[in-house]
Amino acid sequence: MKKVVHPSSTRGNANYGWLEAKYSFSFANYYDPNRLQFGLLRVLNDDIVAPAMGFGKHPHQNMEIVTIPQSGAVKHKDSMGNEGIVAAGDIQVMSAGSGVEHSEVNASAKEALKLFQIWVFPEEQNVSPRYDQKKIATLLTPNKISTVVKPKNEAKDNELWIHQQAYFNLGEFTEDRSTNYTLNQQGHGIYLMVIEGQVSVDDEILKNRDAIGIWDTNEISITAKKGTRLLLIEVPMN
């Protein structure tokens, strides 16, 4: 087993007035040659967007983009004709593929919006752009780690999916609990961030917004404290 620990305090920082951002990996004006990405996970941004402000219309291409609001709501609009609200408790998935333009703006004129913006490199280039979103609560099993987004070839019915052999998982723990996570494929790694609370992973104690990347293993053991919420992303390492 190999690992890298990223304490919350070591993330990149940016304050643009309308946006306060914490960057897990090099992004915008933050550059660290040792933190370009984790496997095919390219971006994990922890954003706070001022009221009525946001990311105006802009293009993306060949990237799988997952957005998870933590508080507040996002007003979404894109060149595919999708328009609506993505609130805390929802998860948004967009495949930029051959090219898409979109805007993501704080839907409130009074309250700040907090969200995770996550990018994963796709396994296929120039696919048709697509959009989807769902309520997270319907996808979770309490006190367990639940897969909320999976690869296209494994998705059934109306499950959320992306164009990559990657698995997005969330855990919400209302009691102290130890659990194991078995990786789905050889050659994968996991990047685990504590949204809030405390977990122990491979003898590392992680608290709010601390993260750990682990690879060269088939399974990890996680001990979560009551009140913990975590994000676990499994991705190919190359």
From TrEMBL:
Highest taxon, organism lineage: Bacteria
Protein name, UniProt field: Pirin family protein
Family per similarity comment: Belongs to the pirin family.
Segments forming domain Quercetin 2,3-dioxygenase C-terminal cupin: 154-235
Domain Pirin N-terminal as annotated: residue spans: 12-120
